[in-house]
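Customer ticket, subject: "Can you confirm the structure for Probable chorismate pyruvate-lyase?"

Message body: Hello, I'm evaluating your service for our small team and ran a test protein. I'd like someone to confirm that this is what the system normally returns, since I don't have a reference to compare against.
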Amino acid sequence: MVHRRRLRSVWNRVDSGGLHQAPRKWQPWLSDTGSLTQKIERAIGQKLEVLVLRDCRQDLNSDESRYFHFKITRCRIREVLLCANGIPLIMARSIIPSSSSSGSNHEVLRLGKKPLGAVLFAKTRMHSQKKPPREIARLDKHSPLWKKFFEQYPALPSAIWARRTLYRLKGRPLLVSEVFLPALLKYPLD
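Agent reply: Thanks for trying us out. I re-ran your input and got the following:
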């Protein structure tokens, strides 16, 4: 019998106790279930600036492919920096499968410089009361996602905390990964 070596993911479900591995200062940000965009905008007292780094069709990294059970290999990837006064607070990577951006979602997902979170929380209000699946990870130079972000943002710290959430927009999946940058800690989470 041949056994395949299963690749371990660096991601841990928030409800599995993985949150306690994160430094206490990041735990409220990593576990928050509301709109991150709205929370940060309340904390800074202004709208976030969105700097679009990449918005195109491309292949998923191996961990992302596994997340979708290898059913999706290529889709729209949107990478942005969310900034306050030109200072990056969050780096986000959204995976939007083709099926998720078709039909009535097509117009909604014409984002431009609008944060995806504003669309998700304004349009869906999470049709069900069920919390979307959320995972957290400590990413470092060995992580494919860290490497992707570093290509776009060379000032990325060598180890960072991130969360990823599977949202649904009109029943269609969108995977959003958010990397928390050190400047975010200047603002308390209310």
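A couple of notes from the result: The beta strands are 12-13, 49-59, 74-84, 87-96, 134-140, 159-169, 172-180. The chain has six helices and seven strands. Feel free to reply with more questions.
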